[in-house]
Amino acid sequence: MKHRFSILMPVYNRQKYVGQAVDSVLAQTFKDYEFFAIDDGSTDLSAAVLASYGTRIKLLQQSNQGPEVARNQAAALACGEYLVFLDSDDYLFPFALETLDKVISSFGSPTLIMGSMERFHDENPPEAPTDRTIRVIKYADYLSKTRPVGTMAIVLRKADFDAIGGLRNTTAQTWYCDDNSLLLKVGASGQCILIESPSTSAYRQHAENSTKDAEAFANGLIKLADSERQGFFGGKERKADRYAYIGGRAAAWAFYYCWKAGKRKLALKLLSGTAPMVSMAVLRKFLRAFHSPEAPIVLEGHRAK
To answer: How many CA atoms lie within 13 A of 289 on its CB side?
Structure first.
């Protein structure tokens, strides 16, 4: 049976939060979806929490191999037109899939949709936005975007995911920058829509976020740069775009998560390993200062009752 969406959620030792993530999916107003939860060898009670939902979710299990292998496993079984990437400590607002469906219908099945996220701390997710006016920015593809956007609300057409060979087959120790790698692989595949508003999901900030491991992410970005140099993401065409993307990520990570945290050697190591790309990112940012930002397209407006 074909669905509009297949939601893919890897789970590793998230017994405290995973129930809220699952509940947020089951509360969606748009019901044409299937939901895969992949227990990645958890050593806490995460698997038991997932099992308690019975047939309402499709529970897969594997030894601890990391989120890329987990999502590839679920994607191989998925029959949705679009894959929705959800982390097990995050949260979908009830109208998220409904909003995504309207965007897809309005733009003729784009390759990639990047949702907007709110941030919250630890326990209780924020209230859903009441103004649900849909404002989007349209780009020819992801590498054409001129606005900074997070990487934690990815919705990708499954046909394009399959065409690029899915995610990397990394390990539980080497998966960092998985979203960046995926976006580089699919970056020139087709139309990209950025949802400016409303926020469709919420990102939970807590002590165990993977972003707390600054060194792992810095090494992941250096590996990303090495993969680009080896031609993993493409040839000369769009090379400058890919360089600017990697360089922008590296510069931001070096400054905000390494240098400001007192990890000066790590910051310099990252900047050294991505220097030509950082230079391209700085150049692109300078040139963008001479161009007016794209005006959002308003699709529909209504307020929650």
So the answer is: 6
Measure Cα distances from 300 to 131, 134, 160, 294 in Å. 11, 5, 27, 18
Q: What is the mean pLDDT of the chain?
A: 94
pLDDT in tens, 232-269: 999 999 999 999 999 999 999 999 999 999 999 999 99
Residue 109: alpha-carbon gap to chain centroid: 19
Are 154 and 85 in contact by the 8 Å Cβ rule? The answer is yes
Do 145 and 192 touch, CB atoms closer than 8 A?
Answer: yes
Name the helix (H) or strand (E) containing 250.
helix 239-253
**Which of 18, 6, 21, 31 shows the shortest CA–CA distance to 95?**
31
Number of other CB atoms surrounding residue 197 within 10 Å: 16
Its pTM stands at: 0.95
Angle at 217 between CA 214 and CA 220, to 5 degrees: 150
Q: Which domains does the chain have, with CATH numbers?
A: 3-209 (3.90.550.10), 214-288 (no CATH)
